[in-house]
């Protein structure tokens, strides 16, 4: 870990705890800063604050005093989820006090280079896939960021022999200043998080910060099928590495219906790749390009692509039984996510869908419902899903209770070559405490069948 002399005996405010705030506060204290933590959770219910107080950190809990910034702070590190309209953040900016997220702190202390991955969709899959590739190739990767591991905690332990593969949200990137990944990836950009950013321009601007400090020694991997990113690449100093799904090209990485190509040469047949779906092909191309730029071997890439079954609960291949393939896409808590899942499979889908009633329209799914031969529906939206499926002429519609019942009914209606897909298009809270618990219930029910093949 690099020392930061500029923080010695400097007053730093950490706004918001959770994992990232706690890790940053502990690290800043270790670096010799005078740290104050401010968190909304009451002290008696806040074990992180209690631990920091025992270390000698000043802790203010249960409220956000409006005069807090009168204490002479020289830096604010905020939890990524706190919006910039927060009064304390606004006051800090008015006073020209730098406001970072802990990603900036991670970069400044790290001895290891970063690979930064962002985009509206596909960040987690790309990050996980690339990590597996690098790990299988002996490149000593560490994984961090929005994927669930606090980047500054990872950077504290990293050495120059490591590489930190980092998933980055717009919330995290907006609070960066000097962050410079050696390889940056933007998988795609769509309208998102406008409630936080206030405008599409602010959201896209935050995403583009991933390339802001890159130089000609660095690489920028981007989606050449989006004109916005093609235009952005022209303004970036890093070497541009475009990827496209629209057919074979001689430059960089590309794909057609048969192969993935690197610099125009076939790399792997698409039918050998375990990770299904056109949306995942963007993730595969960007991860593969980053792997090759990192010195990874084609043999390792092929080995991983023919075995990697996806991130848990995101179009995750669970197993096979008598020609039926089970996929867990419990993370699909809205119709757009389920639309992407249905796009990944051509036909013979037995779809398990339903959950918390939020009165969302289901019309985005209509063009893809002709791929569904059976709908098994459950939860608060069961009746509405059944009516919708019947209006789409889905041949068989069945209502179920909990997941074990849904899987049993799905299997009873299935034939060899069918895809049994959990992609609910709804949140889980009517029946399960989280989409993870719902997905685990699906996996457990499916394994009653798939374990017979093991």
TrEMBL record:
It is found in: Cytoplasm. Gene3D superfamilies: Mur ligase, C-terminal domain, Mur-like, catalytic domain, NAD(P)-binding Rossmann-like Domain. It comes from the Bacteria. Residues 117-290 form the Mur ligase central domain. ATP binds at residues 119-125. Keywords: ATP-binding, Cell cycle, Cell division, Cell shape, Cell wall biogenesis/degradation, Cytoplasm, Ligase, Nucleotide-binding, Peptidoglycan synthesis. It is an enzyme of class 6 (ligase). It catalyses: UDP-N-acetyl-alpha-D-muramoyl-L-alanine + D-glutamate + ATP = UDP-N-acetyl-alpha-D-muramoyl-L-alanyl-D-glutamate + ADP + phosphate + H(+). This is UDP-N-acetylmuramoylalanine--D-glutamate ligase. The lineage of its organism: Bacteria, Bacillati, Bacillota, Bacilli, Bacillales. The gene is murD.
């Amino acid at each position: 870990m690099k020392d930061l002399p500029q923080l010695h005996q400097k007053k730093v405010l950490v706004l918001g705890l959770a994992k990232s705030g706690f890790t940053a506060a502990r690290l800043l204290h270790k670096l010799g800063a005078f740290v104050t933590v401010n968190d909304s959770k009451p002290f008696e219910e806040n074990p992180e604050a209690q631990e920091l107080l025992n270390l000698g950190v000043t802790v203010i809990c249960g409220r956000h005093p409006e005069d807090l910034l009168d204490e002479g702070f020289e830096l604010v590190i905020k939890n990524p989820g706190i919006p910039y309209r927060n009064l304390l953040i606004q006051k800090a900016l008015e006073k020209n006090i730098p406001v970072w997220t802990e990603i900036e702190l991670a970069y400044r202390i790290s001895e290891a280079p970063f690979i930064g991955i962002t985009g509206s969709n596909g960040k987690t899959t790309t990050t996980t896939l690339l990590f597996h590739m690098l790990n299988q190739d002996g490149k000593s990767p560490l994984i961090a960021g929005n994927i669930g591991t606090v980047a500054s905690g990872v950077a504290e332990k990293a050495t120059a022999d490591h590489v930190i593969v980092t998933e980055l949200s717009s919330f995290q990137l907006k609070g960066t200043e000097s962050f410079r990944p050696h390889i940056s990836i933007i998988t795609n950009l769509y309208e998102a998080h406008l409630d936080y950013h206030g405008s599409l321009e602010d959201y896209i601007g935050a995403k583009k910060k991933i390339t802001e400090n890159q130089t000609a020694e660095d690489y920028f991997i981007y989606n050449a099928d989006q004109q916005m990113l093609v235009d952005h690449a022209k303004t970036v100093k890093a070497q541009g590495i475009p990827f496209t799904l629209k057919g074979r090209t001689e430059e960089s990485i590309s794909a057609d219906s048969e192969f993935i190509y690197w610099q125009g040469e076939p790399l792997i047949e698409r039918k050998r790749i375990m990770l299904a779906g056109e949306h995942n092909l963007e993730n595969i191309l960007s991860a593969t390009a980053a792997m090759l730029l990192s010195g990874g071997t084609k043999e390792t890439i092929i080995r991983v692509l023919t075995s990697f079954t996806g991130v848990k609960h995101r179009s995750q291949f669970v197993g096979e039984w008598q020609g039926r393939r089970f996929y867990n896409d419990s993370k699909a808590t809205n119709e757009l996510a389920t639309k992407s899942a249905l796009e990944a499979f051509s036909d013979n889908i037995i779809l398990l869908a339903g959950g918390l009633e939020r009165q969302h329209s289901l019309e985005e799914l209509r063009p893809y419902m002709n791929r569904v031969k059976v709908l098994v529906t459950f939860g608060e939206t069961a009746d509405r899903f059944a009516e919708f499926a019947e209006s789409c002429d889905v041949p068989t519609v069945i209502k179920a209770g909990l997941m074990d019942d849904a899987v049993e009914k799905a299997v009873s209606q299935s034939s060899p070559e069918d895809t049994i897909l959990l992609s609910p298009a709804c949140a889980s809270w009517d029946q399960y405490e989280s989409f993870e618990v719902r997905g685990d219930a699906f996996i457990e029910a499916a394994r009653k069948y798939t374990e017979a093949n093991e």
